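Re: [ENG-882] Designed sequences occasionally contain unexpected residues at chain ends

Forwarding the minimal case from QA. Structure tokens:
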């Protein structure tokens, strides 16, 4: 895939957003994965990383081996409360041309990450650092936020959360996302013209009981 094509796909996915994609065949991750600074957003192919709990050696290696334009997607196992990522790794990742980080664990140096405008999504913020001398894996599928992520899957994140689009489903999810976007645009126009969501969605109002004071 050319850089231009990858950039076009990323822009399209980011415009649709993880909420729409998650309703169009994408895989929504657990809500614990959130942007660590306001406005962080990304859409990029995944490069999976698996750490020994409490250790981030695999993350350091991944920064040197991941393709430019990738987002690192990191599983830290059962020890999330460590600062697996901070300003030093951010600076290294920027120099390597990486697009961002999604980690089911802790990061630190949040103000610095925001200053760098480096897109990071994590499950927590943690001060305590990680060791750097234990085994790990890079490039092999991982489970992050309850979703299986393989190398080349697309990861899309914004203020709503993170959705994974499997590489083999990309075309179908984009098609469904565009259809949903078009349908919602019609809803918006109809709502402004006085229609209700009850009418547009064909909801059964008879299921709702009105109180005496309604």
């Amino acid at each position: 895939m050319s850089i231009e094509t990858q950039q076009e796909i990323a822009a399209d996915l980011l415009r649709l957003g993880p909420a729409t994609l998650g309703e169009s065949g994408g895989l929504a991750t657990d809500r614990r994965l959130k942007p660590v600074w306001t406005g962080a957003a990304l859409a990029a192919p995944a490069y999976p990383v698996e750490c020994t709990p409490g250790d981030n050696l695999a993350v350091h290696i991944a920064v040197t081996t991941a393709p430019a334009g990738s987002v690192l997607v990191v599983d830290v196992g059962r020890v999330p409360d460590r600062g697996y990522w901070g300003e030093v790794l951010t600076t290294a990742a920027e120099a390597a041309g990486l697009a961002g980080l999604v980690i089911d664990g802790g990061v630190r140096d949040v103000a610095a990450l925001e200053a760098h405008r480096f897109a990071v999504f994590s499950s927590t913020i943690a001060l305590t650092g990680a060791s750097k001398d234990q085994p790990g894996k890079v490039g092999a599928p991982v489970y992050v936020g309850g979703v299986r992520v393989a190398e080349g899957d697309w990861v899309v994140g914004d203020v709503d959360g993170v959705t994974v689009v499997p590489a083999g489903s990309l075309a179908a999810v984009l098609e469904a996302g565009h259809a949903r976007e078009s349908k919602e645009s019609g809803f918006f126009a109809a709502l402004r013209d006085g229609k209700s969501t009850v009418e547009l969605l064909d909801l059964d109002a008879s299921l709702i009981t009105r109180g005496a004071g309604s």
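QA comment: On inspection the terminal residues look reasonable. The radius of gyration is 20 Å. Proposing we downgrade this to a documentation issue.
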